[in-house]
């Protein structure tokens, strides 16, 4: 495709006439595309360990209701900076003529084929369209500085555009950041460290605000962009909350049934049905995780489920129980709170004449039910269906407060990991354990949290097949989850 | 609303094959017109579907037409049954009077019992379960084979409507949790259509009969307690209209006079049989009973079930899968940051990776090129000539370096060329331009070795160097590993 034609097609889909461009340039394989993927929240940006993955410039317009606020441009890396600088230097010695020399260089070599990469990355910088261009020069702060970068920085200086240097950390080490800052500070007024793969959302917004500081007229537009992105983040959180509430509601109300002959002993059927019930709960959890990942724009994440820890462990494994489940005592506490609450209503109705006995009795009954029912996964019933000459074995709904607690904890941790994951990350989703050992059966929820959520689960169980009541209970669960979603969730080692 | 439910579901399904950008643009254009429905998701979705006026709207129209047809068919059925039963109960051929007791049992008592069951069925489900007969009826309703009902209903529908309703039902059964209440209330509503039509059929038949015939009415019962209580029963039944229509309240004398026995061809209880005019005075009472205890309650239950069916459909509409996405497009600012990048690929027809051979450097002295300040403190070969290229060098410097190397090799001072590069950096075309320049100066034969020189703790990208070098297709170019002597970076 002809270069000018490609430039037109790049921006044909959206009107970018009033939007600043931020052109991400640098040496090959320094994380330019990773930075673009993270800031554009686009996992489709081609990223690979191989250098030369990006061969053409690609524009990523940030649009709010179709209105382009700014454009991020991913470019191929410098391939022949010394030779290009030599040619530029031969054209002029005057600083005032340097931008013109760069334009002339592009015009000449666009068709000559001698400097295809330099032309590709310089064109969006020097293009007069839109509200101008800013240059984002990306280096890898985890490897040493070298002299081969200086021709690149010099060429960018010749462009005359506002410039910022970003020190990426591909190797996760910061050993060479200081020497990079020293070198970059001589060419760029703004130098920032930014790890494209691990930068949290707030850091990303901070960087975007910094783009606005490159040139005064861009400040307001970048602030508006940051506000829009913050609102979108809020919506993603709400969507994830809804997905988790739906997952928990489905798990809490799921029932498996099987018909057996009237004279058949139900025990074998019960065992098989319990296994199937567990499988369905696992499927429900799996679907819930998919929905959360979609909410955050990670539709095709691969999860490292067999290998590593925590949320990848089986829902019913000992590891999950230890890390997320409740102890029998904790479950009894929750049961006691629920029972006491009911008893309190009776005491209030009796206007205190019962002397609080209903509260005490309710608490004791609730605790006892939770204590002795701790190992039971779900309600199991065998219904006689005389008219049909059969029996129906029914497993469900979920009756184990510890498993419920575990599902919530796992969902919250998973959500937190996904929310923090950048779109530059290409590894499989996994999690590492943090914190100190020996804290016993734990999770990310307090017993108080679990108590609050438990009443909504009870409402779900009561709703049965009444869709309205189910929807109301699910809405209540979602509202109870919302503040928990905003907390930091780091799993503690058992 | 059922049409809207099916239409919106269909439109959402069609939209799944349209790109996200196109959907956003289309719906953004509709926002101003639909803004007035904000806060009422069902109405907004309905208006959205009609504004697009495509497959969804066509489906909605077909479903509406189908529902109308089914409703009409049920009405006709109800009227037919009502008229038939009315004709049977009020049959009068002059041989004996119409039995008021039978009419009251059939059209007041029985209808009242059915109405009571219906009222209980309208209660919230958790309460309904406690009433055994209604719980049984509920289970019966749940076990109703919708497929059978559908096959029966489909006979009266035109082909287009049939397909639309079939698709809607299939979608509904897939999302039973969303649409379960819609089914329930729609079935109840249709039951009231039949019931109301039945009542209208009975009432209409009765009206026609009294309009064209001079009917004699009497009442008859074997049960003495009922007979003794008849005046009180009639009085109680006629209480609602006694003031506004006093003629519709039979007097105790009329009740007394019109008791009838069928023995010996029929005898009245009084000494002298009542005259025709007296025997006809029951009709206002019966007409009022049919209206007040028949048609009016069914009108109310029909209105209520229609209202609940509408509300259920609105509730389901707002909870259709992906309806929240539509509402988000209509009510929320859309933020997009991604693009449709041009396809980018690695070089075609080239090896994905090349390996670094396990060979050692030759013993002969080598001309050494330090490319871009590679760490060359400890080189594992004899250096015949040392030059610097790349990095801060100008193109002219590099040309001079190439000339010096070529001279050293041609004169025999150097057996080959080793280019030391930074192992942690990736190759660039500038280096391979230098390699090509060297090859052009050396001609074929002298080996040029790329030697990625490592630094302590830095990554080793030797494989990438080998892969890129292989692309040059130079048989006298190779990449070798540095022997294990990691150095500090320059």
Summarize the structure.
Chain A has helices at residues 3-10, 32-40, 81-91, 98-112, 116-126, 150-159, 177-184, 201-212, 219-253, 266-295, 318-324, 328-349, 357-372, 401-420, 447-463, 467-485, and strands at 21-26, 58-64, 67-74, 133-140, 163-168, 190-193, 256-261, 378-385, 390-398.
**SS summary, helix count of chain B:** 18
Low-confidence stretches of chain A: 6-12, 306-310, 432-443
What's the shape of chain B? rod-shaped
Largest sheet of chain A: 6 strands, mixed
Shape of chain A: elongated
Secondary-structure class of chain B:
alpha/beta
Tell me which oligomeric state these chains represent.
heterodimer
Q: Name the chain pair whose interface involves the most residues.
A: A-B, 65 and 58 residues
Strand count of chain A: 9
Individual helix count of chain A? 16
- Euclidean distance between termini CA atoms of chain B: 77 Å
Strand content of chain B: 5-15%
Helical proportion of chain B, percent range: 55-70%
List keywords for this structure.
heterodimer, A: 494 residues, alpha/beta, 51% helix, 13% strand, elongated, B: 490 residues, 5-stranded parallel sheet, two-stranded parallel sheet, 10 strands, rod-shaped, disordered C terminus
């Amino acid at each position: 495709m002809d270069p000018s034609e490609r430039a037109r097609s790049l921006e044909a889909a959206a009107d970018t006439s009033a939007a600043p461009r931020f052109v991400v340039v640098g040496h090959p394989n320094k994380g330019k595309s990773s930075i673009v993927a993270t800031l554009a929240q686009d996992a489709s940006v081609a990223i690979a360990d191989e250098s030369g993955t990006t061969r053409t410039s690609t524009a990523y317009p940030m649009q709010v209701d179709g209105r382009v606020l700014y454009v991020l441009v991913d470019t191929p890396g410098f391939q022949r900076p010394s030779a290009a600088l030599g040619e530029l230097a031969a054209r002029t010695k005057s600083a005032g003529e340097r931008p013109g020399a760069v334009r002339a260089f592009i015009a000449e070599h666009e068709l000559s084929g001698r400097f295809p990469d330099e032309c590709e990355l310089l064109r969006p910088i020097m293009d007069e369209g839109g509200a101008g261009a800013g240059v984002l020069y990306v280096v890898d702060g985890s490897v040493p500085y070298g002299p081969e970068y200086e021709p690149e920085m010099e060429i960018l200086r010749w462009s005359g555009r506002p410039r910022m240097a970003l020190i990426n950390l591909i190797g996760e080490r910061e050993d060479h950041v200081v020497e990079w800052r020293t070198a970059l500070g001589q060419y760029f007024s703004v130098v920032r460290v930014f790890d494209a793969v691990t930068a949290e959302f707030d850091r990303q917004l901070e960087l975007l605000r910094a783009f606005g500081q490159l040139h005064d007229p861009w400040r307001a537009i970048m602030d508006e962009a940051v506000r829009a992105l913050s609102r979108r983040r809020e919506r993603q959180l709400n969507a994830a909350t809804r997905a988790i509430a739906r997952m928990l509601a489905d798990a809490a109300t799921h029932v498996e049934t099987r018909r057996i002959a009237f004279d058949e002993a139900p025990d074998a059927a019960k065992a098989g049905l319990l296994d199937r019930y567990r499988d369905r709960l696992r499927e429900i959890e799996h679907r819930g995780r998919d929905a959360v990942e979609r909410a955050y724009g990670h539709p095709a994440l691969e999860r490292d489920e067999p290998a590593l820890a925590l949320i990848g462990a089986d829902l019913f494994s000992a590891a999950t129980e230890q890390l997320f489940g409740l102890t029998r005592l904790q479950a009894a506490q929750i049961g006691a709170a629920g029972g006491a609450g009911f008893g309190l209503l009776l005491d209030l109705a009796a206007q205190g004449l019962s002397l609080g006995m209903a509260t005490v009795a309710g608490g004791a009954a609730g605790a006892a039910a939770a204590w002795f029912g701790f190992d039971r996964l779900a309600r199991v019933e065998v219904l006689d269906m005389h008219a049909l000459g059969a029996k129906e074995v029914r497993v469900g709904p979920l009756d184990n407060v510890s498993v419920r607690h575990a599902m919530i904890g796992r969902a919250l941790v998973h959500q937190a990991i996904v929310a923090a994951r950048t779109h530059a990350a290409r590894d499989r989703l996994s999690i590492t354990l943090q914190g100190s050992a020996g804290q016993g059966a734990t999770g990310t929820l307090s017993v108080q949290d679990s108590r609050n959520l438990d009443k909504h689960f009870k409402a779900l169980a009561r709703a049965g097949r009444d869709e309205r009541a189910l929807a109301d209970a699910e809405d209540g669960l979602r509202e109870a989850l919302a503040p928990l979603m905003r907390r930091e969730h780091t799993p503690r080692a058992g | 609303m059922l049409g809207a439910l099916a239409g919106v579901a269909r439109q959402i399904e069609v939209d799944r094959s349209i790109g996200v950008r196109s959907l956003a643009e289309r719906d953004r254009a509709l926002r101003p017109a639909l803004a007035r429905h904000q806060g009422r998701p069902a109405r907004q979705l309905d208006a959205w579907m009609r504004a697009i006026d495509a497959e969804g709207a066509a489906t909605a129209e077909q479903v509406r037409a189908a529902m109308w047809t089914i409703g009409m068919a049920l009405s006709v059925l109800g009227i037919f049954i009502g008229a038939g039963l009315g004709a049977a109960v009020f049959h009068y051929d002059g041989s004996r009077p119409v039995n008021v007791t039978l009419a009251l049992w059939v059209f007041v008592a029985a209808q009242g019992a059915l109405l009571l069951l219906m009222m209980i069925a309208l209660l919230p489900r958790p309460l309904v379960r406690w009433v055994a007969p209604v719980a049984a009826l509920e289970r019966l309703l749940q076990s109703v084979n919708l497929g059978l009902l559908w096959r029966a209903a489909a006979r009266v529908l035109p082909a287009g409507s049939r397909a639309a309703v079939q698709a809607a039902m299939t979608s509904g059964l897939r999302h039973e949790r969303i649409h379960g209440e819609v089914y329930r209330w729609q079935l109840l509503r249709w039951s009231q259509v039949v019931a109301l039509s039945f009542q209208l059929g009975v009432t209409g038949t009765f009206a026609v009969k009294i309009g064209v015939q001079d009917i004699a009415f009497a009442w008859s019962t074997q049960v003495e307690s009922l007979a003794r209580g008849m005046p009180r029963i009639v009085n109680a039944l006629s209480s609602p209209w006694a003031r506004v229509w006093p003629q519709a309240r039979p007097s105790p004398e009329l009740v007394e006079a019109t008791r009838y026995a069928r023995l010996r061809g029929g005898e009245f209880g009084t000494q002298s049989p009542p005259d025709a005019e007296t025997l006809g005075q029951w009709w206002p009472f019966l007409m009022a009973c049919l209206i007040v205890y028949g048609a009016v309650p069914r009108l109310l239950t029909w209105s209520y079930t229609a209202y609940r069916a509408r509300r259920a459909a609105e509730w389901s509409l707002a909870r259709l899968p992906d309806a929240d996405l539509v509402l988000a497009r209509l009510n929320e600012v859309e933020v997009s940051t991604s693009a449709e990048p041009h396809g980018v690929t690695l070089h075609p027809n080239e090896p994905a990776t090349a390996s670094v051979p396990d060979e050692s450097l030759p013993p002969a002295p080598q001309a050494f090129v330090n490319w871009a300040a590679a760490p060359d403190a400890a080189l594992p070969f004899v250096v015949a000539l040392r030059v610097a290229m790349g990095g801060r060098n100008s193109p002219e410097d590099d040309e001079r370096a190439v000339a010096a190397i070529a001279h050293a090799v041609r004169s025999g001072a150097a057996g080959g060329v080793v280019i030391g590069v930074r192992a942690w950096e990736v190759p660039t075309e500038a280096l391979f331009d230098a390699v090509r320049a060297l090859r052009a100066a050396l001609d074929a034969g002298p080996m040029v070795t790329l030697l990625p020189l490592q630094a302590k703790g830095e990554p080793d990208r030797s494989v990438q160097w080998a892969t890129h070098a292989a692309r040059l297709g130079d048989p006298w170019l190779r990449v070798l590993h540095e022997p294990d002597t990691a150095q500090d970076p320059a």
